[in-house]
Amino acid sequence: MIVQINQSLAKLNTFGIDQKASRLIWAHSAEEIANYLKHHGAPALVLGGGSNMLLTNDVEGDVLKVDIHGREVVFEDNDHVHIRFGAGENWHEVVLWTLMQGLGGLENLSLIPGNCGTAPVQNIGAYGVELQDVFVSCEGVMIDDSSPFKLSKEEARFGYRNSIFKNEWKGKAVITQVVLKLTKRNHRINAEYGAIKGELQKMGVSKPTPKQISDVVVAIRKSKLPDPSQIGNSGSFFKNPVVSTEKAEELLDKYPNMPSYPAEGGKKLAAGWIIEKCGWKGHREKDAGVHQNQALVLVNYGNATGREIHLLAQNIMEDVYARFGIQLEPEVNLI
Ligand code: EPU
Predict the structure, then answer these.
(1) Is ligand 1 within 6 A of the CB of residue 239?
(2) Does this model's pTM top 0.90?
(3) What percent of the chain has pLDDT over 70?
């Protein structure tokens, strides 16, 4: 364990917000985390890849940075391999590494910022695939009594950008390892998403490999989403809202071109489209802005504070509610 006093968190959150932690604790194993919890109790904040949070204040107290590495095969047959990843492994590096081994499963989830350990928390998803499609189990430590836990896929209760870690276990558990199931052959290629299909057609590829899907996803993401190492951001700032079928029909009468998709409980709408329709796309106030290629992404052009970005988000939410009668929900955690 390494302890740093009065440390800036600017490099540890993808929004690049410069707030400080009274103490920053780097933990390199589940044992270190259990030990820390036994002696100090709950930290003020548990930090993974810092890719789904907006810091609006300094953190008074300890920030526990989960920096556990490791990639280990725990099961293998002719078709599949289960690999256990340390929670602190960078997600995209893991995706590329599995593709280099000829393994399939993670290709649609290429270039998502963040670490392995936080991927189950919000069930990361993109281009028709969600983490739950490859998830076997995860392990970690309970915060209240520092006991170990192991959760299966069913127990993790995944939903759209949702899991037990955002509900019953919110703030109660630290994930230290994640086991994922990957294919060695007969890969389950998922190329149905419109933009992927279009790119593959352009390339003249009809039977794509996982690596080719990954290349296409990387190209699409690069064209639409800002690179956090250049422009601070946390990916989609809001969730796509699910509304009743009646509400969706009422809006479709008014806006026939509005994207809508079937979803549990009604229709899922595209928050990016709605925000663009309200005129916010490309909007900038000082260094806080709405990305010019994807209105669902809020950005820090350099020196924005978390509060400025939060204020911008609140203004967008109020405007969307006034015009569309839809209450947007942030996907990013406000700290
Ligand atoms: N759209 C607009 N204007 C915009 C943004 C989107 O009109 O500014 C329209 C698009 O043209 C399209 C629809 O809205 O018809 C959906 O857009 P897109 O395919 O870009 O996906 P999204 O719904 O905006 C979601 C995820 C992304 C993920 C993509 C691809 C959420 C909150 N976001 O975005 O995830 O990469 O689908 O699967 O579900 C993330 O979570 O950080 C993230 C980037």
Answers:
(1) yes
(2) yes
(3) 100
